[in-house]
Design brief:
Blueprint lengths: L1 E3 L4 H11 L14 E6 L2 E7 L8 E6 L2 E8 L18 E9 L9 E5 L2 E7 L8 E4 L6 E4 L1
Antiparallel strand pairs: 1-6, 2-3, 3-8, 4-5, 5-6, 7-8, 9-10
Length: about 140
């Protein structure tokens, strides 16, 4: 149903092990954590995006590729403020999910609540189990396909 890919994830992991987690201009922010599961006739994907304004989230579907982009912007702390620790990553986060043909990408629903973006993707009608009539013999029977 879902294939997850991020070609730079392994590179980032290795760079962080070698150089430590740096917030330099060349480093990418960490990927947004995700859970995905099937619940009945829909596929549910949840992304942790704490501190992200709902207007800074962008969802796109092109063919079977779902792209989620979110931007965590710096907080205006006012004047005469000296930042002591800055561990929360800022910038643009992006994830791409390759959705299987069995999902209905035309009817994706999105909800953002308490820092969690939840997508509900219905299973396509043609992918749902259905009965098939068998002809022949004395009587017709139905079996699950």
């Amino acid at each position: 149903m879902l294939m997850r890919t991020d070609p730079f994830r392994e590179f980032d992991r290795l760079a962080q092990q070698v150089f430590g987690h740096t917030q330099g201009t060349w480093s990418r922010p960490s990927a947004m954590p995700m859970d995905a599961y099937r619940a009945g006739d829909e596929f549910v994907v949840s992304f942790d995006l704490p501190g992200v304004d709902p207007d800074a989230i962008d969802l796109d579907v092109e063919r079977n590729v779902l792209t989620v982009k979110a931007e965590r912007r710096p907080v205006d702390r006012g004047e005469n403020v000296e930042l002591q620790v800055a561990e929360r990553p800022l910038g643009v986060f992006s994830r791409q999910l390759f959705l299987g043909e069995s999902l209905d990408t035309e009817n994706i629903k999105a909800n953002y609540e308490q820092g969690v973006l939840t997508l509900r993707i219905p299973v396509a009608e043609q992918a749902k189990p259905r009965k098939i009539a068998i002809e022949g013999g004395r009587e017709q029977r139905q079996i699950n396909a």
